[in-house]
Amino acid sequence: MSNKDLLPIALGKEKADLVFKNGKIIDVFNEQVIEEDLATSNGVIIGFGNYEGKEEIDLEGKFISPGFIDAHLHLESAMVTIEEFAKTVIPLGTLTLVADPHEIANVSGEVGIKYFLTIGNNLPWNFNLMIPSCVPVTPFDKSGSVLNAEKIKELIAEGSFFGLGEVMDYEGVLTGKDYIWDKIELMKNYFIDGHAPKLEGKFLNAYLLAGIMADHETTSPDEALEKVSKGMYIMVREGSVTRDLQSLLPAINDKNNCNFLFATDDKHPEDLLSEGHINFMIKKAIKLGMEPIRAIKLATLNAARSLGLHRLGGIAPGYKADFLIIDNLDDLNVLQVYKDGKKVAENGKALFQVDSNNFEKPTSIFHSVNIAPIKEEDFNIPKGKTYRVINMIQDQIITEEEFFSFPDSFEEERFIRYNINKIAVVERHKSTGKIGLGLIRGFGLEFGAIASSIAHDSHNIIVIGTNSRDMKMAIDKIAEIQGGIVIVNNKNIVDFINLPIGGLVSTDPIGKVSEKLQVLRKIAHDLGVKINSPFMTLAFMGLPVVPKLKITCDGLYDVENNTFVPLVVN
């Protein structure tokens, strides 16, 4: 049925499939509320006014909102299957998302991307999957796959993709490197997402010549205002580690608010369950002083228009019948969720089921940890006088570089006196035996070791510890269980979580995953860790495109100067 066939319904000559009576329609176009009936048929909104329906629902003064949109996220960060993630966020009102699968792609390439696309397209939401631009994130990084322009061209021919994932290698863009510009040119007619932390002035000008449209790495009002003035959309991010909503709100005003939208980027299961998803961002924005309808507008219409998602983001004739029933604008509780005019969630519960057994499980995804034999001495710090140290910043993935000289004799056991731990990255895709070794301040570990197969974005094994013995044991356990997070203390495996899908994702329900992570977090804190989100924060210490100093399996990397640097200075 075409919209032409719906004309008699719109004109009031025939009954609509479904009519909501006595509701308050949130008009994000004018930032107001309209108290009229809402009619839907054939999965689209017919209009509002005086309508009759084959089925009529009395909302008794409740609000009707457009479905929420997450403009940028990595599904893998939720650490549960896509179907489990959908069952979690759709009841919270998220009906549209733009997902960049560069985590699974860095592990298993095209196989992982197609696996995500197949599952995502079989769920009741608007699933928009990007083709990752950075696999690996930079040419020198050691990932499990390489996704060049030729492979991207093949993916475009085979599947339906939304755009090019965040262009993290801004150095490659600014210096005109063919390996990244070939991808950009190939995707120039698609949405191209950005990743431009602290880029300004002529560097930002040059970056934007690539046709990059948005950025989620903006952390200050001045940075946001410059980027907006140069045509960028700012994805205000509120994840588990990076929380920029409060700092960016002062940049949003009546003149420029249409250039701001919401994104979660990376959110852990505990926070999804305890806080929420995009609905949490709306409530937090309101609490911080933003008008409720404007906050909803950022999560709906602004996102749809910025991303080029037509017929989404508003309650209007001809738009998709994707909307929510909300109790009030203070509590913002999502009571019902409708996708294409059909109820898919109610009172926090999904009304749909997906059988994961219907999807093929590629071997390369479920057996992805391949390390060369390691020895305890591989994690011994070489003796020296002055060391280069990664200095962590609370609630940020940005780090600082520090030069540290031990005031007393060099002994590894003395590191914790200065809040310094050993950190290493072990290559886990090709069994090359490469191990990068460094020192890090601010994590706070006082005993044992923590290892994880989540280490953005190449996802080699990252380990932090107080001694070489426990670090080796933790890594060996990761290899044994084919991915996960492991905590070791005094030669004992204290606890672990198994993440068999690419070493990134569990097959358990989100509640069970959340409970296990809370247990692991408590253990980490009992061992002295000071970081609020220790495992996700640790994962970002291996990301060599976010300043200042990071670590890969080839060693310490100075992001700002685009070069590897030695651990021992003198």
User: What is the CATH homology-level superfamily of the largest domain?
Assistant: Metal-dependent hydrolases
Helix content: 25-40%
β-strand number: 30
Shape verdict = elongated
In round numbers, the mean pLDDT is: 95
Write down the Rg.
24 Å
Kindly give the count of domains: 2
Q: State the CATH architecture of the largest domain.
A: Alpha-Beta Barrel
Strand content: 25-35%
Largest sheet: 8 strands, parallel
**CATH C-level of the largest domain:** Alpha Beta
Ends: how far apart?
75 Å
Oligomer: single chain
Number of contiguous helices:
17
Keywords: Hydrolase, Manganese
Protein name: Adenine deaminase
GO biological process, one term: adenine catabolic process
Pfam families: Adenine_deam_C, Amidohydro_1
